[in-house]
Amino acid sequence: MSRKPARPEPVQVVKERRDGALKALVEGMPYARFLGIGFDRRGDELTAVMHFDEKLIGNPLLPALHGGAIASFLEVTSIVQLSWQTIWTEIESGRIAPEEMTPATMPRLPKTIDFTVDYLRTGLPRDCYARARVNRSGRRYASVHVEAWQDHRDRLFAQATGHFLMPQAGPGSDG
Amino acid sequence: MGERTEALDAAEKRRIAKQFIEALPFAHSLKMEVQDIGEGVAVIAMPWSDDLVGDPRTGVIHGGAVSALMDTCGGAAVMTHPEAPAGTATIDLRIDYMRPAAPGQLIVTRAECFHVTRSVGFVRASAWDEDEERPVATAAGAFTIERPKEATT
Predict the structure, then answer these.
(1) CATH classification (class only), A11-165
(2) Phi then psi for A136, rounded to 5 degrees?
(3) ipTM
């Protein structure tokens, strides 16, 4: 290592590393793919997107999104946000090369302990967005709040709070 | 009405409710099957599938898929309550995950709408895999009671 301050990394190197980690994290979750959930990233900030599909409909008469599809979207968003924050330091340290970032090399995912969903408005047949905030992240437990909207960021149609058991890393553990 | 007609009505009601639930696009895409329904109780099964897996390294179904099953089952229980609401929507639902569901096994949920007021149906539900001794998850929720138009004052 040089004693001089390191030159900032080229932007494409930084992007490749961060996007590679995010892709590995999300692609390692078949249920997220099944629901058509993707993530937009700005720096470390994630926004989840669930693209509308007919199969997500619960009530065809209204039509409205199924409560279960909404709950699933919120839980996937919470788990990805929590994992993302956990591995961020690891990603930034450059210890994992982008080509080594695959679903198999990603850390184990947090396990949901409980999850409570508030349905505030009918989910319309269009794309949904969500952002999760980790309110507490300890070594074993984490508490996450997540908000979802469709057309207007400040008109939430659902929100949820969940508690998660963090994967236990270290030798002799299956984490 | 004779007893015989009433019994037929109950069977017919069950058939219609089963058909209605299984035809909901999201319930259909998760291959949910109504095993029993009526009088504020519903039993719905969901087969294990690759699509529903949360982490392929364990093969365990994502919690969200279990939530979807619980939510559908809760709604079905409310809809068939003797107070006969015209429709229902989830107000809130809390799920507690007791243990991971065994990969490859059918998940069965039983929901009961144990109390209704004019506007709200209260539901409890549990889910099991093939080990019926230990629940995979339990849930508690509140659902709206949509009254038929002529009944509202």
Answers:
(1) alpha beta
(2) -150, 135
(3) 0.91
